[in-house]
Design brief:
With about 300 residues, the chain is an alpha+beta fold. It folds into 3 domains: about 1-65, no CATH class; about 75-205, Irregular (HU Protein, Chain A), CATH 4.10.520; about 215-305, Coagulation Factor XIII, Chain A, domain 1, CATH 2.70.50.70. It has 3 helices and 17 strands. The chain has a 5-stranded antiparallel sheet with strand order 10-9-11-15-14, with no helix packed on it. α1 crosses α2 (about 125-145). It is elongated and about 85 Å long. The N and C termini lie far apart (about 80 Å).
């Protein structure tokens, strides 16, 4: 009587040890099937070279996903309790709606070669091979996103989702990928973030000064591009502490041209305004690069900020 193999009777789980070799299952193993593995006596089983006496298979893991490492809240202090822990420095900042939040104190920008060489050393590859693999993964993510495919937890590391947005005065105003601001979102899995956070100590670098308007981005809503504008169209400023009274001409969004950098002209027309967003209609006839400044009244005083990048 022939033995029939019941699929999934021996499920194959991530990181599982091969009970016939004593080593983790490897890519290219002839006995691996989708979601399970073959045993001696199963049709198609290929004996392993110098196969040792077969130990009793370990019971399968209950879950594919890793559990967050337990964390002692006392480790998140202003001191570094371990030489293996990194210190995450932050500033305390007031929120426009009341209360406080934090922002990281940025250190040095890392360079490509440092990361490439570290990954290469960890995996026994060349830096060029690592870059090629990373590029291939990103190409595959974009290829899948083009069909709106997604992954909740890719290798238990990343959440990958297609995104869209855009703005149109009418429902039928979207015709191109640029119109809908088609994109791709990559975010680190919660378990992975928890593991990373467990390696950190934190250190406050103090509270920042008075609240001031902050502009993190300027988007041209005509085509969804950043740091550009079209005369007569809307630009959208994103940031914090941006709400102001449209009727007060001392407040608002001001621009200066390259020809007259010291002359700031107030934009007169606005769409919706909130503490985190301003929609401003660019005057007709403008051209060339502009410097953008935002002025708002906070606690009965005018406070301003200038966007770091000229828009054009």
């Amino acid at each position: 009587m022939h033995r029939r193999h019941a699929p999934m009777s021996k499920p194959l789980l991530y990181g599982m040890t091969n009970p016939f070799t004593g080593e983790p299952f490897k890519y290219g193993d002839p006995n691996i099937r989708y979601g399970f593995y073959l045993e001696p006596g199963d049709p198609g089983f290929v004996p392993y070279p110098d196969q040792p006496p077969q130990p009793k298979p370990k019971p399968p893991h209950k879950s594919f996903h890793r559990k967050p490492k337990p964390r002692d809240s006392s480790s998140n202090t202003t001191t570094n309790p371990s030489t293996n822990m990194s210190t995450f420095q932050y500033n305390v900042v007031p929120k426009s709606g009341g209360g406080f939040s934090t922002r990281p104190v940025l250190s040095d920008e890392f360079d490509d070669a440092t990361i490439d060489n570290a990954v290469a050393a960890q995996n026994g590859l060349t830096a060029a091979q690592c870059v090629a693999v990373l590029t291939s993964y990103l190409d595959q993510f974009l290829l899948r996103a083009a069909d709106c495919e997604w992954s909740h937890l890719f290798h238990d590391l990343l959440s990958i989702r297609p995104t869209s947005g855009g703005s149109s005065p009418t429902p039928d105003g979207f015709h191109t990928p640029v119109d809908i601001n088609a994109g791709l979102s990559l975010s680190i899995s919660p378990d992975r973030l928890d593991d990373w956070r467990s390696t950190l100590s934190i250190q406050s670098m103090g509270q920042t000064g008075l609240q001031t308007p902050e502009v993190d981005s300027i988007i041209n809503l005509a085509d969804g591009t950043q740091d550009t504008y079209v005369a007569g169209e809307i630009i959208q400023l994103g940031g914090d502490h941006l709400a102001f009274d449209k009727t007060d001409t001392a407040q608002g969004v001001f621009y200066a041209t390259a020809a007259a950098p010291g002359t700031k002209v107030r934009i007169a027309s606005y769409g919706p305004i909130s503490p985190t967003q301003i929609n401003a209609i660019m005057p007709a006839g403008l051209s060339g690069p502009l410097t953008i400044t935002v002025v708002v009244r906070i606690a009965n005083s005018l406070r301003s900020t200038t966007y770091l990048h000229p828009i054009g």
